TrEMBL record:
<keyword id="KW-0472">Membrane</keyword>
<protein>
    <submittedName>
        <fullName>Sterol desaturase family protein</fullName>
    </submittedName>
</protein>
<feature type="transmembrane region" description="Helical">
    <location>
        <begin position="142"/>
        <end position="166"/>
    </location>
</feature>
<dbReference type="Pfam" id="PF04116">
    <property type="entry name" value="FA_hydroxylase"/>
</dbReference>
<keyword id="KW-0443">Lipid metabolism</keyword>
<dbReference type="InterPro" id="IPR006694">
    <property type="entry name" value="Fatty_acid_hydroxylase"/>
</dbReference>
<keyword id="KW-0812">Transmembrane</keyword>
<feature type="transmembrane region" description="Helical">
    <location>
        <begin position="38"/>
        <end position="60"/>
    </location>
</feature>
<keyword id="KW-1133">Transmembrane helix</keyword>
<dbReference type="InterPro" id="IPR051689">
    <property type="entry name" value="Sterol_desaturase/TMEM195"/>
</dbReference>
<feature type="transmembrane region" description="Helical">
    <location>
        <begin position="80"/>
        <end position="97"/>
    </location>
</feature>
<feature type="domain" description="Fatty acid hydroxylase">
    <location>
        <begin position="83"/>
        <end position="219"/>
    </location>
</feature>
<keyword id="KW-0560">Oxidoreductase</keyword>
């Protein structure tokens, strides 16, 4: 419960700051934009977290009790295991994100996130629940192999969500500060490039928390001169792609706008 309160508090703070010091005007989307995104977030909270509880966390706890998995069979200090677990989970998320963009079936679900024409903190919740469930399943083999402790899963959940809120936010952030932070973590300017209408830009900057994965695996695209590209996917321009009811069924519909 404390984790949810902390994440909810950060979300609310960013939501307020976006209205005080926005990077981009809200006139490019309708009034229902945030409500639709929040609706998807509520579905994911109800379905995704219960699914994770009985899969990801249950497996991690089971392996911990049996001392199965690489990390459970080492004599590493518990704090080192915690840090290592967070780093490994972030690497797994990087490859999951790349896979979403590489496999057309998965991209059908991930496109719900990328059809957003305005990036703000509510966009961090704009994921189809099937993508969320598949993401949890993707983690299971790595948890089984590495024996990632439950504490690392819990800590990474907080770190991941807070940074996703931050780098999707529509806050006007000082460019120098963004450049400084982006040497370590994903920042708004860095992630806005990933949501660009241009394929070369959207096919880069897959990291969720630590930026080093993009730099190691050759998918890093620096901020450049344009800090706020146009967002979305070419062809998905109709207002229906911003409505909750359509986003829920969008992956199962063939037609484009």
């Amino acid at each position: 419960m404390e984790r949810l309160i902390l994440m909810g508090g950060i979300f609310l703070m960013l939501f307020i700051l976006e209205r005080i010091m926005p990077q981009v005007g809200r006139n490019i989307v309708g009034k229902s934009h945030d409500i639709s995104n929040l609706g998807l977030g509520a579905v994911n909270l109800l379905i995704g977290r219960y699914f994770a509880l009985f899969t990801v966390y249950a497996l991690a706890k089971y392996l911990e009790n049996l001392e199965v998995g690489v990390m459970n069979m080492t004599s590493f200090d518990s704090k080192f295991k915690l840090i290592l677990g967070v780093i490994l989970l972030d690497c797994v998320n990087y490859w999951w994100h790349r896979l979403l963009h590489r496999v057309s079936f998965l991209m059908r679900f991930h496109s719900v996130h990328h059809t957003d024409r305005l990036l703000n903190v509510s966009s961090a919740l704009r994921f189809h629940f099937f993508e969320v469930l598949m993401g949890h399943l993707f983690k299971l083999p790595f948890i089984l192999l590495m024996g990632i402790p439950v504490e690392a899963l819990l800590l990474y959940d907080v770190i991941f969500n807070i940074n996703v809120y931050f780098h999707h936010s529509n806050i006007r952030i000082n460019r120098s500060l963004d450049l400084l932070l982006s040497k370590l973590i994903v920042t708004p300017y860095i992630h806005r490039i990933h949501h660009s209408l241009k394929w070369k830009e959207s096919n880069s900057n897959f990291s969720s928390f630590l930026i080093l994965w993009d730099k190691i695996f050759g998918t890093f695209h620096p901020q450049g001169d344009i800090s706020t590209p146009k967002y979305g996917i070419p062809g998905y321009t109709q207002d229906k792609y911003q409505h909750f009811s359509y986003m829920m069924k969008q992956p199962f519909i063939e037609e484009k706008s």
